[in-house]
Amino acid sequence: MSAEATNPGAPLRKRGRPRIDLRRLGRVALLGPVSRDRLPDAIGHVAEAHRAHHPDSDLSVLRKAYVLAESSHRGQMRKSGEPYITHPLAVTLILAELGAETTTLTASLLHDTVEDTEVTLDQVREQFGDEVCYLVDGVTKLEKVDYGAAAEPETFRKMLVATGNDVRVMSIKLADRLHNMRTLGVMRPEKQARIAKVTRDVLIPLAERLGVQALKTELEDLVFAILHPEEYERTQALISAWDGAQDPLTEIADSVRTTLREAGISAEVLIRPRHFVSVHRVRIKRGEMRGTDFGRLLVLVGEDADCYAVLGELHTCFTPVISEFKDFIAAPKFNLYQSLHTAVVGPEGAVAEVLIRTHRMHTVAEAGVVALGNPYTQDGTTAAHQAEPADGERADPTRPGWLSRLLDWQESATDSDTFWATLRADLAQDREITVFRTDGGRLGLPAGASCVDAAYAQYGEEAHGCIGARVNGRLATLSTALNDGDTVQLLLAQDASSGPSPEWLDHARTPAARIAITAWLDAHPDSVQGPQRSRADTPRPHVQPPDGNPSSRTRAGGRAPSVAVDAPGASVRLAGCCTPVPPDGIIGFTVRGGAVTVHREECPAVARMRAIGRAAVEARWSDPGDWGGAADYRVTLVAESFGRPRLLADLTEAIATADAAIVSATVEPPSEQRVRHTYTLQLPDAAGLPGLMRAMRDVPGVYDVSRAQQPAATGG
């Protein structure tokens, strides 16, 4: 059995006229000549296809639109020799088969009238309402495509602008291109190839992103036949040979039906043949085709829960190929696609790929945004006279996140060449990931995107001041590549003058990020780049202590807190490597000259002393009354931060505000955007240490402050 199931949930048609199958028409266009006979009952096929999806629709508006289109285009001919009206009819039929609502079909019938005839937009608005007028105007603004190198980028730029306010404009354009590709044979080979390349590079990826798989797959096959005729003929021969052979999928499909019936699961099991390009890809991947490689099983059920029930039965009763399992129901693709994918081993050892989805999921998988109806009404029905908001913006709930991003960056692209290059690069990304923000929001990004891309996706131009990120709670550099499901927190500098580094371009994958970074760098050619300067470019900072002494090491007056040790007569000093202060637990060790050096108990030096056999000396803090009740506590702190302008000044200000004096300070050159500061400080009261450390952590860009446990570096 072989079935395509383009709309298995649709009502049954009346007998008398066979259903027009979109995929079958596409295959006819590939395998043989298309009849140029006049369409019988020209609008009848469209009306019938439309009623299959929308049984209660009002067909009078379609007939009215057809009358206007036919009379307006009368006398015009296509290059193929057909009356021009056959083109808007064919485009509308394509959309009707996909389940487009009445408004879209009406606009499709009229999509060339304003551009190619004397019909005006005002006439369209008067006869068909604002919505139809809006769509016709959007398609008209695209103008006729000039396939010259300079004109093509600007044409598709206009297409994106028009699509931004209504995805139905793009749906009509895609159907328009599909019909033109079907009838491309009348053009010269070089023009066919030029049009096919643009279709491959731009329109097929757009169809994929809009989820219109029925259009995408047929466009792929048509492009394949033009650009790779030898490979196409080889694939055609393979498909023809398979059509005449015994199909191993039939036996597996029968076994699946039996299994699900015995489990009490109501399901429709179909064999879904692969299209030409899909077969070609499988042949390249496997080398030698297997009988089950020419198609996949499609299991259609009523509810989401039934999908998982089917999956459980298949994995229980058949041997599953675990590596082939993918759950696009729990995590839908960026183009609204939902299905469970798996593969099972059949009775004779043949491996069959299986797609499991509901009828509704199948409709969306085939038709994408076309199947979602009118996005500007509550129930997806036609809104004939809906007024446009005063600001001209229309919130489209069906508009995918990637399309919003394209619209954002196309406004920033300074010229058509930049736009074209970034458009093609973005569309070449065939997979999208979702990362989560710490505030509960989410970002859709292309696979391979980095923290740089996430920053510009979330903050726009404010991302110029990004100084780092946390990915899944852990600090990460801006170059870190993100994975699907990661949680990312972007850290921004408070200094509005901060800007990106040229190195960011090495990690930016999205057009929005690349365009914004390039624009900032062009506008600030002489600016010092703080966040990502290389080690070679970064001078060693020189600290100006609070008392004005230009030396990078200074000592404040005062007495150290008293320590009592079990070594009578020995001199005592506090270790500079860990700078203990009350109430730290302490321990001493006798060093050369008989002096006792006191360390914090957790200092690494303690373990080294014990390892070489040094005897520990008991040490304890003296009562403050024993040494006058006042002392200066010396402590060494290490601040880890992301580099940015004025960071050093902000840290020293935080230290001074906490009444601490800087004894010495060292700032190491940045490494992978990170900077390490080591400060030896004197505090008037050890109780102020926790507050000082909190104040330093609150400085933007600082992600950790800790007590030093290494030999303290000195500034010079």
Please tally the β strands and state the result. Answer: 21
Q: What share of the residues does DSSP label as strand, in percent?
A: 15-25%
Helix content: 25-40%
Sheet with the most strands? 6 strands, mixed
Label the structural class. alpha+beta
* Low-confidence spans: 1-40, 145-151, 378-399, 528-559, 626-630, 711-716
- Assembly state (oligomeric): single chain
Return the average pLDDT rounded to an integer: 76
Provide a count of the helices: 24
Q: Report the C-alpha radius of gyration, rounded.
A: 35 Å
Q: How widely separated are the two ends? A: 84 Å
Question: What spatial form do the alpha-carbon principal axes imply?
Answer: elongated
Written description of the protein model:
With 716 residues, this protein is an alpha+beta fold. It is built from 24 helices and 21 strands. The strands form five sheets. Strands 1, 2, 3, 4, 5 and 6 form a six-stranded mixed β-sheet that branches. Helix 10 (167-182) packs parallel to helix 12. It is elongated. The termini are far apart.
